[in-house]
Amino acid sequence: MTAPALSIENLHVRYGGVHALAGVSFNVGSGEIRGLIGPNGSGKSTCIDSISGRKRPAGGRISIFGKDVTGLKPAQCRALGLSRSFQRTSIFPLLTVRHQIDLAARPFDDRNADHVLDTFGLLDCKDVVASELGYGQQRRLDLALALVGSPKLLLLDEPAAGLSREESLVLAQTLRTLARDAGITVLLVEHDMEVIFGISDHVTVFDTGRIIADGKPTSVRSNPLVKKAYLGSEG
Ligand code: ADP
Ligand code: MG
Fold it and tell me: CA-to-CA distance for 121 and 144, rounded, in angstroms?
């Protein structure tokens, strides 16, 4: 049996006295798009930070493609095929698009830079400095940077935040195509429910550091616990 792309077992994460994740377990199959939702403060970014090596768990185990990565540093996780984007973009405002892609590609000897720019409609902006890009283009550059080096597992923290409806739906389709064609597994944290329920194979719901629902988009969407957790924030 092939190992899941991502396996999380009984993950506990604390910030001082705050128990941000209190025993979370789930697996993500290879090639799957997994939506991860939950109210503000429920632990979604913490989960991504722990998987990608930015925040050391207080307990539990994280494996990617069958390899235990608990407590590894971000660069070590990246070398194992794990990449991520940030809730706020991590681009350098004063560098050109091309320069940033080249910097990101250096550790990988990656020659597919034009390809990642093309994927996100940025080929024509190669020589533009990032601060002169539109907001939607900056967010897409952040995703293109995450894709340099052909990662196998992509963790995305609210990639559609601040995008227009149309831009969000284009982004969703791009992610769907990437997962299908390049076989990339995606863990997608996103507030835009249309994006989440439109492209996820499976959805996991956090509330105050625990999983309150997990399943196919249609069953999660109609789950009373999920509706209750979102009451007032999602209408
Ligand atoms: P989400 O991404 O679902 O909004 P977070 O993972 O950012 O939630 O936060 C989960 C909990 O951990 C919240 O209670 C938040 O206040 C707390 N938290 C997150 N980051 C920090 C930090 N750097 N220091 C202290 N507490 C934090
Ligand atoms: Mg967050």
Answer: 10
Range of the domain at 203: 1-81+152-235
Report yes or no: 142 and 89 within 8 Å, Cβ to Cβ. Answer: yes
Res. 37: pLDDT tops 90: yes
- Whether 115 and 196 map to the same domain: the answer is no
Same domain, 140 and 156: no
pTM flag (> 0.90): yes
Residue 47 CA: which ligand is closest? 1
Q: For 96-127, how does the pLDDT look when each residue is reduced to its tens digit (9 = 90+)?
A: 999 999 888 888 876 777 889 999 999 999 99
What distance in angstroms lies between residue 43's CA and the mean position of ligand 1's atoms?
Answer: 6
- Asked if residue 168 and residue 125 are part of one domain, the reply reads no
DSSP state of 39: S
Residue with the larger pLDDT of the pair 88 and 13: 13
Q: Are residues 114 and 9 in the same domain?
A: no
